Amino acid sequence: MNEPSNTVEEVGLIKLGKDLKALSTGMDRDQAKMMIRAYYSAQEDRMRRGKQSSGAASRYQPHAVLDFFEAQSLFQERQVASAVTCWAESQPMARWAMDHAVGVGPILAAGLVAFIDITKAPTVGHIWRFAGLDPTSKWSEGKKRPWCAALKTTCWKIWQSWLKLKHNPNAFYAHQFSARRKLEWDRNLSGELAGQATQQLGCKNWDRKGPAYQWLTGKVDREWARNRLESGEQFPEQPVLAPEGTEPFPMLPPGHIQSRAGRWAVKLFLAHWHAEAYRQHYNAEPPFPYPIAILGHAHQVPAPAARQRK
Question: Does any domain span residue 114?
Fold first, then answer.
């Protein structure tokens, strides 16, 4: 279903005025959290209603009532986004994120400021753990979740945005992501990750006929995977299997490699974000060295220069 064209007057809602937008800048972090959650809730509601409307339209004639409620959802989503954007522009660290990281817009930047308390993060490792990016942090049954689900989702959305920016010359973190993905694939194809692939088999009950299981058990043709990667083509859902009698070569599936590179890139970004937030809050340099080395670098990777935003 196409985006509704209803005007504000037609749906009976009031547009967020300049006065209310100005008041948005005075929200505290808890209030900003509520607004960010309201935005994603409105977005999910609008997308869900859109799917329902599309399904109904495929069976029946489009109905004005369905259009009316879809327009309301879209309008509410945009108004909440407008308020969150105003708040983000009033926050120094949100502006820093938008100025230095192509792909991080006001909603994502606001999420970082709202969900991260720099006074509780003396090192970036504390942020990684709180964002669910520390592989040693496990959520045991019956225990409190050791990370913030909203921050984890924000970080996931950030590296997902970088997937679309690999050809943007100004997208520093998108290029870091691509370089890391290439490194992870090199390790995967060389057999360096075979142990981790085998270990993954015991982490869940895999579908033995599914493609992930074929990668993890070493049934996929390694040369086919290498050629596919070098050609730049997307991996199909069903991989090509190695000839019978070939010695198994366990590898991580493409989705796992993508996620590993994405987590690495967003951890690099968070290390830069933490260092700047620490400087702004304490008027001092963060504890040295801030752990870029933990990310696999032999040297520190400096944050990119600020860019001109439109």
Answer: no
Angle at 254 between CA 248 and CA 256, to 5 degrees: 95
What's the CA gap between 153 and 135, in Å, rounded?
Answer: 16
Report d(CA 101, CA 117) in Å as an integer.
Answer: 20
**Rounded alpha-carbon distances, angstroms, from residue 220 to 92, 190, 199:** 49, 14, 17
Same domain, 43 and 180: no
Q: Please count the CA atoms within 13 angstroms of the CA of 187 that sit on its side-chain side.
A: 20
Q: Domain check: are 125 and 62 in the same one?
A: no
Give CA torsion, residues 34, 40, 44, 47, to 10 deg: 130
How high is the mean pLDDT of the chain?
A: 87
pTM value is 0.87
Supply the range of the domain harboring residue 180.
Answer: 119-295
- Res. 91: pLDDT tops 50: yes
DSSP string, 3-42: PP---HHHHT-PPP-HHHHHHHTT--HHHHHHHHHHHHHH
Q: Are residues 176 and 261 in the same domain?
A: yes
